[in-house]
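User: Can you predict the 3D structure for this chain?
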Amino acid sequence: MPTVKEVYVALRTASGGTRDLDIMIAELIGWQRRTLKITDTATGRVKERPQWTPPESDAPTKVPFYTTDLDHAHLLAKESANGSRIAFSWEAGLASAVVGATSHISEAPTVELALCVASVLKIASDQAAVEKSTDLSEATT
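Assistant: Here is the predicted structure, written as structure tokens:
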């Protein structure tokens, strides 16, 4: 599973969306990959095919196109925001986005990538808050 930093760096340096980036994001937010083995009855060859299941589900489905589909990128932002604000804008060749209560504006070549970068920053912020809370509670016990 990639770290938040690895996903952030990959997104920040991307010039466009890719399935590899989509999969990195999916793994970061808890999607699980399983390998389905299929035997070709005609040849007897065994082929392996990946199957993905979203968090809190056992039903396999396709990983969303977070980095190339605005609806999927917006869904990621909504899930990451946890009720906080989401803002984004774009013009030819440059997009900006904010997810959560931050003053940091994420910029990227496409609005989908900008939303993904902002979402990953929100995820990182949430993880840091949990770690800080845990550190404080351990220090007081």
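Strands lie at 32-39, 46-53, 86-91, 94-99, 106-108. The chain has four helices and five strands.
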